[in-house]
Amino acid sequence: MVWVDLLNFNNSYISSGQEEEKRVSVETRVSNLDGRTIAETVIQDFKSNLRGPLLRPGTPGYEDARRIWNANIEKHPAFIAKCTGVADIVHSVKFARENNLLVSIKGGGHSIPGLGLCDGGLTIDLSSLKEVRVDPEEKTARAGAGVTWGEYDHETQFYGLASTGGEISTTGISGLTLGGGNGWLNGMFGTSCDNLVAADVVTADGAFHSVDQDHEKDLFWGLRGGGGNFGVVSSLKYKIHPIGKVLGGFVGWNLDMTREVMEFLGDFVRELPDEVGKIGVEVIASREGVPMVIIRPGYFGPTEEGERLLGPIRRLGKPRYDTLRAMSYEALQSSRDPYWPWGRHNYFKSGFVEDLTDDVIETFCAHTRNVPSQYSQIAVEYYHGAYSRVKSGETAYPHRVTGWNLAIGGSWLDGSASERNISWVRAFWKDIEPLMSGGVYVNFMSAGEDDRIKVAYGKNYDRLVSVKNRYDPTNLFKVNENIKPDVASQ
User: Fold this and answer.
1) Which of 164, 366, 411, 475 is the most buried (most CB within 10 A)?
2) Rounded distance, CA 430 to CA 455, Å?
3) Residue 489 pLDDT > 90, yes or no?
4) What domains does the chain contain, in order, with CATH numbers?
């Protein structure tokens, strides 16, 4: 493990109208993974090669840069390189490789297990890479790896266009896409990685690659679902599609309607058109903090047809809430932001199930009666349409069966309640896992699920290992849902 000897920090600040970086004495030492030390002169040389700042513990900006979405993850990198472009990324990769440092890659910082950070190593922070360039004629958009979906949608929707993206607007585009990328437009256009047409990436040897279906095809294939295993992606290019007004919101009932709602939806989804991009049942707390069960659809065709198609949902029982309405795509994409804000503690378990059987519904209902935090949410979402028409080996993201993705999302405010909430999630998962059909969406995995990595990549795992062998044979990029190389140089 990398460590920083903080005893030699000079704790004084130099002030000249602005707070300057805390100075670090030349005696400060960083121990690398081999137990050797990195001279301060080497660190300063690295810093001088960066256009962006190099942040270290105790320096201004470090704590803000260390902040991530999931407050339940606490990590302290020895260095955070705030990259401003490809040159900074290349220098960072070479510095990490030459000094055998642990490396993490931070884009939006929304990873559930906090994979954007590492303890004691180098975090390559891409959050400053914010450029979005839309080509409305070509129907493509290229964006920097630090862009969030809210920022991306704001630019593409100016032209009435969109790509499949995460439904929390503060999520980064890069991490979500590299893990597959499920979103509202699954039914019409497939996943985020299905819409990825090119990417720029710096591999472990410090080389820069522009990849697409015709250039370094295997690496491009691996990026479409294989996570951050193969390099540091600096920009991504997507297909974009015409999207105007959409029908979104939810219909909600008292919690005792959960079984009836799930049974209804299990039948209702069987003949849905692609225009219902995604639909799901969710147990959440109302604004008053009272648990309720909701159906949350997204419809992307003519509003009148959507109202007709979704009408049976509104006529089920006696809903407490009905917020279904026409809205902009940007409004739909950000509508769930208040439910998943930054700064809460979070822990997930997730997996796929083919049908909402009686056993699945009963287990779901049983554990939604004893949720320890009003901020936790339990969802089961239906994936179909274009999502399922992609062959499982066409992209590295392998899960292409029409069916349901269940996510048990524990969320709470106070860190002292972590054990209780994590135990609830694990107990729920223990009971429902035997009913699952196998597989897990890599972006919904939590820390400590290394035993599920092969499950996440499915039948594509062996091919992903071969890509890893070629582009990262020493496993420099291991702070991820790691695909380990099996070559001799590992």
Assistant:
1) 164
2) 17
3) no
4) 3-125 (3.30.43.10), 132-243+458-471 (3.30.465.10), 246-452 (3.40.462.20)
